């Protein structure tokens, strides 16, 4: 399940909802990741644009991979502005076995950073500045292939 939220994520509420969802599923592990906006390069925060149909396709491929191992992946991401020291991305893997969850969360987060269709901007002096130096080319993305 992909959940998109305007602004920074309310981590405790989201994880509580996910945990409660998992209680009757007989999972032995819930392994999570929280991405926090760091205070660096004099930014006030980050801002994100998301094209949900492409993100959903990317996520569905991961969900199928997880299901083949008896696991489920959940993720939440921010749209718009996220201040420094708050969260813009969280994910969790639910699995009958901890090793599956530990391996999947690592692979999922690494692939997310490299391939998820989310565009990032630095917030400086109240302006959104495209973070081109931290962006990746996406196959079939047209204009973004020219980065």
The gist of it:
With 147 residues, this protein is of the alpha+beta class. It has 3 helices and 7 strands; from the N terminus they run βαββαββαββ.
Task: Write up what this structure looks like.
- The protein has 147 residues and is α+β, with helices and mostly antiparallel strands.
- It has one domain: Aldehyde Oxidoreductase, domain 3 (Alpha-Beta Complex), CATH 3.90.1170.
- The protein has 3 helices and 7 strands, in the order βαββαββαββ.
- Strands 1, 2, 3, 4, 5, 6 and 7 form a 7-stranded mixed sheet that branches.
- A hairpin with a 3-residue loop joins strand 4 and strand 5.
- The longest helix is centred in the C-terminal third of the chain and has 18 residues, at 98-115.
CATH fold descriptor: Aldehyde Oxidoreductase, domain 3
* DSSP strand count: 7
Q: Total helix count?
A: 3
What is the count of structural domains?
1
State the end-to-end CA separation: 30 Å
